[in-house]
Write the structure tokens for this entry.
Amino acid sequence: MSVPAEEATEEDRRHLIVTAARELAEAEGWTGLNGRRLAERANVDVGDLYRHFADQEAVLAAVAVHGFAELAAALTAAHADNPFPERAWAVMATAYLDFAYANPAVYDAMLALTPDLALGAAGVPAAPRAVFAALRAALLPLAQGRDPDTLAEVGWSLLHGVVMLTRGGRLRPEAQEEREAMITERLLWWPCPADGNSLSARGGMP
């Protein structure tokens, strides 16, 4: 339910601006975003917009942080709903891909347009770190003596790569299901299970 402008708190107005930016970007892409259109969409004055956000880069960063928080929540929910510990990575990877494909502009804000949110940078907000922590936890049972942080970075890289290449039309559409099954079910296991011992063969995947 929307909040009347005269009753909106500072936090409400920030949320309205971030939501409006996200909606505009998902509809038209980030290149078409400007202060005037964003203020109109959020039903705030342009001056009020720039009082909350110094520039469009700050709006973009806020959308990205909100996106990371949503993705972290989706991963947490997927993990909570999964009764099979051995399927943690498969379930979380699927939730990650579902989020990325459903929210392309937000995903770009998170992982293509905000380099300051890189994990190695100082002062990174909690939300991006929470996504990494969730992926790391899902891959920990597969580490088998490998460094869990590095394994999580490799797993995240695989997911991100397949998202961006698929969205860019660079991969064979007919092989998408097999690619994703390979990432989630076989590629990161070590030693790699024989076909007869895979999760699919054990009934882990339909």
In short: Residues 56-81 form the longest helix (26 residues). The mean pLDDT is 89. The CA atoms of residues 18 and 28 lie 15 Å apart. DSSP finds nine helices and no strands in the chain.
